[in-house]
Amino acid sequence: MSSARPSYRELLTRELSLWAAISLAGRAPVAMAPLALVFLARQSPGGYTLGASLASAYVLGEVVGAPLLGTRLSGGRQRLQLSAGLMAGALAFGALPLAHTAPSPVLLALAFLAGAAPAACPGGLRAMLTRLVNEDLVSRALSAEATLTQCVWAAAPGLVVILALQVYPGAPLVLGAVLMATASLLLLRLEEPEAAQPAASAERSSAPMTRTLLSGWPVYLTSAAAMAMLATAELVLPALLEDRHIAVGWSGLLLAGFSLASAAGAFCYGLRTWPGSVRVQSLVFLAVTAGWVCLITLLPGLAGIAVALLPAGFFQSGVMVTRNLSLRERLPEHAHAAAYSVMYAVQGVGYSLTASLSAVALNLASPSAAILGGVGITLLITAVSAAAERPPKPTVTPGPPLSTGADQRG
After folding, report:
1. Measuring CA to CA, how many Å separate 397 from each of 31, 390, 394, 400, 401?
2. pLDDT digit string (tens) for 5-52?
3. DSSP string, 35-68
4. Which domains does the chain have, with CATH numbers?
């Protein structure tokens, strides 16, 4: 660890403050949406089954929309494209409470649109952030972004429950619509440098965007694997508590603590410049996180679960920040916004598959075994992607032959 002084103060500029407000207003509805859709439908004829279907449609919209729209972001019109996506998402969020008595296909279509329309915004805003700061502040800026994101995710469930139960079931979605519309309008006021473009048209033909984005697959895969490992712990947590005869209600508090620990971890990562490449740092953080997740299954009682889960959240945020930095190093600047969107989609796929596999695992084994199985699969996937991400060994090319007198005369 170097002795570089903490410099989060250098991020306190007008542009970055505006960016933070946009990010907060744009991410809060995303964090609230799945649970808000469940509360919207819980008193309808479809009940919790319809609510789960709406949440699934929303996540599917994110998975489809992020790469589809993210790869179409252009440097000159990026703000307008992101603003339009946020406004379309706001309209879909606002329409859901108004149409809560509509047939299920209509609600499913609106939930899909609410997820898909603004899905390119997390990646686009992250790419904007890295262009708003100097190169030596990129690591701290991404750490600050992760801290903000985790704080939003920690607060979102409680906010949804309060609004849905104390105001009315559609209130969280109405708030989401207002926040997204606000983010859309604020985004038009954000001044940010133009994204770099490929040097020449020849570069576009030799390295099209699709091929450029696909070259980052080891980073996408590791990110998805890391999220899947923690998703396993989160999704199996209620079953684990019940298996240990602990009140399932503790799961909400434990997961809120996990998110806050992740926010603290991201903040601490940005305080210093750490030794080693971001690739090595990511693997170290991932291994440490896996160790703490394994301890969730071994330490007894509620205190034991908390002692393991909170450090897991603390180190997991380091994995995600270093993965963002690795992707930034691996791909050219003009592809960053699209690449972050693709990674966002891949993480969503990893989370969705983990949810399905966790349900199967719980039918075949104990909650502890399900968590350990998820960790094992994650580490196996990570080993494959880490081997693929390793830079090739430099090859020694023979130099030009020594010139002779005859050569010099010729």
Report:
1. 53, 21, 9, 10, 12
2. 557 888 888 999 999 999 999 999 999 998 899 888 888 887 878 888
3. HHHHHHHTTSTTHHHHHHHHHHHHHHHHHHHHHH
4. 16-191 (1.20.1250.20), 213-390 (1.20.1250.20)
